[in-house]
Amino acid sequence: MAKLTMTAEPGSTLMIEGKAVVEVVKGKVDVFGCELSEGSVFNIDVCKALPLYVVENAVVNVESGKVWLIDRKTIPDEWLHAVEKISNLDKTVKVAVIGGIDVGKSGFITFLTNHLVERGSRVHIIDADVGQNDIGPPTTIALGVTDYKITSLSDVPMYDAVFVGAISPHGIIQRCVSAVTILKNLALKNNAEFLILNTTGWVSDPGGRELKLSKISAFNPDVVVGIGERGELEHLLKYFEKFYEVIRLPPAAYVKKRSRSERKIIRKSNYARWFENAKEIELSIGNIASAHSFIFSGSKLSIDEIKLFSKYVNTKILYGEICPEVYLFVIEGWEKPRVEKILDKKILFLTSDVFNNLLVGIRSKEKLFEGLGIITSIDFNEWKIKILTPVVREKITNIQFGYVKVNPKTFEEEKLVDKWCF
Question: How would residue 128 be classed by pLDDT, with cut points 50, 70 and 90?
């Protein structure tokens, strides 16, 4: 890797974009309130950027990544005032942070967390950004806990999570709100002193309004922090300030703006991290329960019933079951899932390849989230399913089908699956 040595004077900021390895060779720098001195080494994730504010004359080595120098502090003074105000509250405090895309929400939460930790607090953080989750993997809403300072939210150890199965809250708003409620209660049960909620950048149009209003109401914060340009969040903050204390903050300077392709690269990197040491395991479908899906939740059709229905729909049925709402058939012969109607029920036709490389969430009796899995094959005749996962077999009691296909070798997202499919 190419190594670059940078020198900088106090009062300036080194902006470093990853993927990079950073070593402080001399002096002292501050990353969102986390002071790092000689000998400190840390990583910056791919397509993310961190500001290193120079406290003392510094020499910094950077392996890979991009580096540029700014002659001032990039964190607004208003951020420090807000952090001091929140830090001085003397009770269990819930703080919700909202804002559009790439305004610095994660940076502010990191900044706030470090100041709270410095005062001796143990901080709980719910990361509800399902597409760009820092604490948990993509497709989850995660709860993390830290009592030490961090340079980014990805440094926070995950305590537990809820798998929602998608990289966007579109179409699953109720599931996202439920997840926030569940994790809030879990944090309070864990004696959280400070609980911070990070949210997605979806703040406009009817869907964005509905998501934020529902999520904030479920979280019931003491303080709502809105980060954005003047007036950008007023359609939400005017309502919130009638019930909660509202703090309006400007965006961070020089926030890394990420393209859609860069966001996809970040998710690929995160999938790879969560699938470290994964192995393919085979499970009996009869020994597991599925959630949020029709398949494997109804009554399995007999061979004779499958033959009868195959004649009726004029195509080969590999597997079928009757649910209260639908007949579900796994078939060959059509390119994509479809819905028809027979007698008093709908028929949901799924092609067998819809399951190939499908991402799933795994839950046990002990934890809401044990890890991710990727379906490599389903044998409907033998009633077996093979999954690539780092989770040990004994922990798998529940599988939830997601709506994303992920390549099990490269961990790149292949395609999204319609949410009505299962």
Answer: very high
